């Protein structure tokens, strides 16, 4: 890949092949070669810092008791959409998303990822 930065208009552009540069047209352009690498994607989303992998929380359930989501991030989004929710617990084994308010306790449990409504 080639990155071009035009000093006059302060814009960058990526091009996959070097283009023939006319020195008069592109005298205010700098080019930089970069290397990119592709890593095998992790199939599970990485928990955010306000998520607690391996912890199950308890509190007052916000109905319905259990929802199904694809991951803990979507479970947190369910919590965001529920005004009463303050915390959530996601079961990584069966996809159960449990929303709660007023957290009362927590336990170590490797099947769960728990977290707050927001990461503020």
Automatic annotation (TrEMBL):
Pfam families named among the record's database cross-references: PAN_1 (PF00024)
Protein name: Apple domain-containing protein
Presence of keyword Nuclease: no
All copies of domain Apple, residue ranges: 50-119
Gene Ontology cellular component list: extracellular region
Keywords, in A-Z order: Disulfide bond, Repeat
GO BP, sorted A to Z: proteolysis
Upper classification of the organism: Eukaryota, Metazoa, Ecdysozoa, Arthropoda, Crustacea
Classification via InterPro entries: Apple, Pan_app
Domain of life: Eukaryota
Source organism of this protein record: Lepeophtheirus salmonis (Salmon louse)
């Amino acid at each position: 890949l080639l990155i071009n930065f035009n000093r006059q208009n302060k814009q960058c552009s990526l091009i996959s092949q070097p283009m023939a540069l006319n020195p008069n047209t592109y005298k205010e352009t700098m080019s930089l070669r970069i290397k990119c690498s592709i890593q095998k994607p992790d199939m599970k989303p990485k928990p955010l810092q306000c998520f607690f992998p391996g912890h199950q929380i308890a509190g007052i359930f916000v109905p319905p008791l259990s929802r199904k989501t694809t991951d803990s991030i979507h479970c947190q989004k369910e919590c965001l959409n529920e005004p009463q929710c303050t915390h959530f617990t996601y079961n990584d084994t069966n996809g159960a998303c449990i929303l709660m308010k007023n957290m009362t306790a927590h336990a170590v449990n490797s099947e769960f990822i728990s977290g707050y409504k927001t990461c503020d």
